[in-house]
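Subject: Interface between my chains keeps coming out wrong

I've been trying for a while to get a sensible model of this assembly. When I model each chain on its own everything looks fine, but I need the whole thing in one frame so I can look at the contacts. Pasting all components below, labels as-is. Any help appreciated, I'm running out of ideas.
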Amino acid sequence: MKHGIRQLFIPGPTNVPDRVRRAMNVPMEDQRSPDLPELTLGLFGDLKRAFRNESGRVFMFPSSGTGAWEAAIQNTLASGDKVLMARFGQFSHLWVEMAQRLGLDVEVIDVEWGKGVPLDAYEARIAADADHEIRAVFVTHNETATGVTSDIAGVRKVLDAHSHPALLFVDGVSSIASIEFRQDEWGVDLAVAGSQKGFMLPAGLSFLSVSEKALAANHDNRPKMARSYFAFADQIAMNDQGYFPYTPPTQFFHGLRAALDMLFEEGLENVFARHHRLAEGVRRGIQGLGLKLVAAGPQWYSDTVSAIYVPEGVDANRVIKIAYERYDTSFGGGLARLNGKVFRIGHLGDLNAVMCLSALAAAEISLADAGAKITPGAGVAAAHAYFREADAPVLVERQAAE
Amino acid sequence: MKHGIRQLFIPGPTNVPDRVRRAMNVPMEDQRSPDLPELTLGLFGDLKRAFRNESGRVFMFPSSGTGAWEAAIQNTLASGDKVLMARFGQFSHLWVEMAQRLGLDVEVIDVEWGKGVPLDAYEARIAADADHEIRAVFVTHNETATGVTSDIAGVRKVLDAHSHPALLFVDGVSSIASIEFRQDEWGVDLAVAGSQKGFMLPAGLSFLSVSEKALAANHDNRPKMARSYFAFADQIAMNDQGYFPYTPPTQFFHGLRAALDMLFEEGLENVFARHHRLAEGVRRGIQGLGLKLVAAGPQWYSDTVSAIYVPEGVDANRVIKIAYERYDTSFGGGLARLNGKVFRIGHLGDLNAVMCLSALAAAEISLADAGAKITPGAGVAAAHAYFREADAPVLVERQAAE
Amino acid sequence: MKHGIRQLFIPGPTNVPDRVRRAMNVPMEDQRSPDLPELTLGLFGDLKRAFRNESGRVFMFPSSGTGAWEAAIQNTLASGDKVLMARFGQFSHLWVEMAQRLGLDVEVIDVEWGKGVPLDAYEARIAADADHEIRAVFVTHNETATGVTSDIAGVRKVLDAHSHPALLFVDGVSSIASIEFRQDEWGVDLAVAGSQKGFMLPAGLSFLSVSEKALAANHDNRPKMARSYFAFADQIAMNDQGYFPYTPPTQFFHGLRAALDMLFEEGLENVFARHHRLAEGVRRGIQGLGLKLVAAGPQWYSDTVSAIYVPEGVDANRVIKIAYERYDTSFGGGLARLNGKVFRIGHLGDLNAVMCLSALAAAEISLADAGAKITPGAGVAAAHAYFREADAPVLVERQAAE
Amino acid sequence: MKHGIRQLFIPGPTNVPDRVRRAMNVPMEDQRSPDLPELTLGLFGDLKRAFRNESGRVFMFPSSGTGAWEAAIQNTLASGDKVLMARFGQFSHLWVEMAQRLGLDVEVIDVEWGKGVPLDAYEARIAADADHEIRAVFVTHNETATGVTSDIAGVRKVLDAHSHPALLFVDGVSSIASIEFRQDEWGVDLAVAGSQKGFMLPAGLSFLSVSEKALAANHDNRPKMARSYFAFADQIAMNDQGYFPYTPPTQFFHGLRAALDMLFEEGLENVFARHHRLAEGVRRGIQGLGLKLVAAGPQWYSDTVSAIYVPEGVDANRVIKIAYERYDTSFGGGLARLNGKVFRIGHLGDLNAVMCLSALAAAEISLADAGAKITPGAGVAAAHAYFREADAPVLVERQAAE
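Reply #2:
Try treating it as a single job with all components included. I did that and got this:
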């Protein structure tokens, strides 16, 4: 029998703040009522702020993030279109697979898991594409399977350097609203996010933030894929009035209102800084335990999820099972080729320093139970030291004010 | 400023019972946890009971019902396939539109709005299709725009009479779990439902109940439409273990557990009988006010929604606006060609007799405010008389027991 | 098995608005945290506004309203003190009983049930009390058992006319925050209220609003009753810092914050006007059914509860049982001598016109089922006519604005 | 701005489990409905099981635990009665104070804070009371201010050894439902508990479990204190039918149902064992940090709360403030003479091992920030070692089963 708070340290769904849970606990309402647009038009506007997408628009689909991946493709590309993708983890792999199923001509660059988007290889390929056969370039901003963040601005530079007109697709499911994302500045055309990560909502709603260029591509004369549920046109016609082409999950809108309020009250820059600080604390803890990250170097470190190799001879799945069953803590598993070798700590969303210490404490004890030779307390102590050091300037200020 | 309980008499989303709201108000959980299948496998099994689909399987998609419409088509048909559809209201119209967008060769039979599926016309067309060019026959079980229920068993008889192998697609969004639906017995191959009607959940989850024949069609060698988000194969691979191919909205599963428990505790037959009794009470009330239904005769009456013509010279949209603004009551509007002429009362889901009296009271006062010449109280009184009469046998029993 | 919304038309607990329920659904918190006073000090201030008590203070006790009755007595009176009380219903009766148990020398004036405080009799008694032996005068502002409201300002005039120094105790449990109450202006010294009526919260918190004079009486040198749980001094010492002498139910504070916000957003005057309009609608409905109120005349009508005689030969308890079991509606019962003769409709708190129509519809059908000869629909129609007439000026305005 | 889960490690209110929160989130209901007794009579019965009081009865008062202290006294004792009490912390002190205010002739034995009930001194006093002038003996089972548990069975032995008829009063607010309590076996006559500790509910409901002897004392001919709100007789008359003499907070009953279900599903013995194991883990952590408990020795250790001396030169209030403001963790403060020297960790209610590790991690970092020389991680590591060792037999079993 289970007691107490269960810790959720998977990289999504994340902990839904009580404020958001409360906000969502509403009676059903008339999705065609005259009052709804006051709520929804505000959400559309604020989502644009969250994506830093001033010029385009954001769609909300009742679907998981995977649905928004599909929406992005169906509305702007046609079967047989050539696209450039990189694969360096399970989620970039799945996106490749979807693109292939939907009939795209996918040119895949495989990258060692632990690294992210290969700017050089992209540059070479883009440079070689003088005829602009590549219709779109895809990047997984944050590869959730490996805890690796890619350089989107770098990809933009590559495209610009060659004046290449390809659309830039970004999977930001586990990055947007947690780490820096600047759609306009980085020239991202289609950015995908989901409700259950940085937006701190339950799963079930996806966001697709679209540039003016992508909207134009949707409207132009080239035939696109057959589509209906995820069609932009239906959404645009209704969204502009604050409504939707089919029954929307209005309870999510109330939750999203609360979640966006929380993000803006904190300030996006502060949200990102908090994620960095908490992630770094977790990483120090990991290092304190003598463990290694999958991410191949600091330039790839993700501030939303860390994938961690267990020591040789230890079964990572056993660590995860022990954490779940004995210590009421959910960690993420190693996916595909990382299965059994890796466990993952999600450190995104509504999180604080003590929760991270607690994740480390649970990891330590579970590793030890699973037979790893680690020094108990060493992870907590290392994170602890970092948090104190990182907070030192703030503390001086606070103590002066006290 | 608004006070008190707002009455929701649209034909979905319906009132979510407090028990279901409570059940859904859960912290997020690990969608790959070892505990999840205990919950989800039970749901899959009980959904089959609710659809009376013993031999096939039910999918749950994070989407509106519209998504399940698309899933049904993408997984079993190919672009260019000939299908037979009937159009007799806004929702059957939208399904036709989707089928066309997805590239089907749709043969549409237009029927007077107020009637349902035209068995004779279907029979004629099926009889003529000796080569079985028609791959699928579509029926909207309950046309939500007109309050008309169609005879699905009749369509099955037509197909059987001609040994026609077409798949039978049914839109049961506003019927299933509220009025009788027998998938196996009626030979329905793909039945679509949504969370927010008879299943008494918020919007955001769709159900697609699929026969063995439809599953075989999905697996056979004919190419089907490009698909990924709604692909059966991914779902099947994961669902069999109690998991999902992408992050599922687990909060809905807890709500669905409660909703199915409520349906089975009451007993499906009793659920249907209750819907009939409440619907008939509303219809008597409508008649008591001298108003006419859109449904062209009793054989078409829907037990989940009534579409009601306002008297000549009265603007139905004004009635709806008054009900909403002055009397805290949401009625459905007249859609498409019925706009301005019709208002709709949804009477499905978690409902009782006094709620129906209350809907009638709100309708009376709103009609009067909008200038209709009606006798105040006449609707309530007529429904009242019916409820007392309908309950009489039960009451005799109860009084004997007291 | 029960379905749908259960109607609550008892005179408290009243319907807790969803907004308040949401606000109360909070994790427990540290009752000594530095953040708590920000919440609680605001509540104390706003409660004073709600009682129109600028000069004194309001206490919040974790108790029912009955506890606040006791607190009022224990802190300002001593065993053997003479007090003047009137008894005209079950709740004024219970207060008399409490006063006697606590050792007061109670002079009771019995009044016909259906009338309220007897100003003449009070005047006679006060005039005769030249030596000011009467330490306190008690009045039940709104007698919940009979649906009768008393004239508090009139009692104040009586005391002032004779310059009588007695403390004025008022039971405002079923009046305050629903109908007009002006503590400072009316010179009320101790006003009792509960969370579960006009304040729209669940039961469990009581309010005692105390004048400066009553606080002085608490502090003066005369010995008072033994007390500890309800002692003012402990509360004052802690409340001034925003804290409490024992563990407070902090969840109520969040609910109270929301409830007070709702009251002030609407405006207390509008709250009172709404209660009057809704109550009058119910009364018209009652009259439309040919039934009689217990309240002996319009000057006694309560805007928060109506006690209604059933026709001769009908058992009121049977009406209530039928309403509860068949029609999902809770009415109040006839208390003490009114038992079996009376049912009560509470019409206070978070309420709107259609809810009142619905209560009348449920009353009609339940009365008919119980054998009463009433005209179905007549109650709804009469209320309906009143609401339309009462709203006419507003409507003209609204229509002009549309 | 605050993020993430706030840790609540005060000794009450404790963390309300999500299941209990959900259960309490109900619409208001008719407190006189025919359905209520089904719920309430079950609660009364199960509360008796929780107190191990088969022969007597349990009262539920809408009040804090302090109210139940008062109820116990008012209903069985008279002003001037001699009672024996021991004072060894802030809560035993407050109970003495209440007894004095209510007019009892209190003989107080002061004990060094850090120890509990002085059996020798009680024995001496009881032995000397040949005339049985002492009407009641009071014991604070668990002194929440010092983290000290007293030997109730020992007090019973003292009374029995001298065949002394005094009533035995026990304050079990922070013990019952968390650590062993056996009312019948220990001959406890009046046992006080509150909703917000081991019963895992929000504050606002108190429990008073009363033996047959105490009920007889309530009924006998000796005059008792004036009482009304807390009078047993009114409760008994109504409780036997499942009702209450004044509006009860029915939402608590639904929460209590869920909480009792949780306690019995786990099994009371397992609940106690869990509390012991978690408490011991915390104590090992404290020792690992080189800190000292207020409790003067293992025989006094409380399994629900630990009071911990901070090192010389460190301000305990600063530690608490830092924990609250920087590390989102609420610890209890040092009360009265312990103020500034002590912080307290509540470890009761809905709790698991990782939460305890997390409390220790927060304590470590807050102590360090406040200038204490402690070894970071040492507390977590020591608790960790204990949990692994304590769980070893269970783990062997589990691993065999896996």
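Reply #3:
Confirming on my end. The interface with chain B takes residues 18, 21-23, 25-27 of chain D (CB under 8 Å).
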